[in-house]
Specification:
The protein is α+β, with helices and mostly antiparallel strands. It has helices at about 15-25, 30-50, 105-110, and strands at about 1-5, 60-65, 70-75, 115-120, 120-130. The chain has a 5-stranded antiparallel sheet with strand order 1-2-3-5-4, with helices on one face. The longest helix has 22 residues, at about 30-50.
Length: about 130
């Protein structure tokens, strides 16, 4: 398992792709790899901006696990979490021109399976890409 811990500063988003590339680039074709980059970057951005509220004293934990059948990407923050059932629909006409609000939608579209859950100390996003 590969692990990366980042302070909650959006400048650290530039570290996500090199971390992911070193862990999985040799296993995924281009399409799945770039889907994984976008999904993981969205999850980390959500953790920094929405979860940890850009509080640099809080951290975002990222892990990559490769098994025989899948790649599991996990992102944890130290925020208060969110209610998955009450997120605005980004495809609703009122939301089409809104800035933001598409992260969870994009993640769900780009990976094979995703899960969003509250933990004892924050929120955890788990994304799976099947091999």
């Amino acid at each position: 398992m590969e692990v990366l811990t980042l302070p909650s500063d959006t400048r650290n988003l530039s570290k996500v792709e090199p971390f992911l590339a070193s862990a999985v680039r040799h296993v995924l074709d281009d399409g799945k790899y770039y889907n994984a980059v976008i999904a993981l970057t969205e999850a980390v951005n959500n953790a920094i901006v929405h979860g940890n509220k850009r509080d640099a004293s809080k951290e975002v934990y990222i892990s990559v696990l490769i098994t025989q059948t899948e790649i599991v990407l996990t992102v944890r923050d130290q925020g208060s979490g969110f209610d998955l059932d009450n997120l605005p629909d980004p495809l609703h006409p009122d939301n089409l021109l809104r800035d933001g609000g598409r992260g969870v939608f994009l993640i769900r579209q780009l990976v094979d399976a995703s899960d969003f859950e509250r933990t004892a100390d924050g929120m955890q996003t788990t994304m799976r890409l099947f091999l």
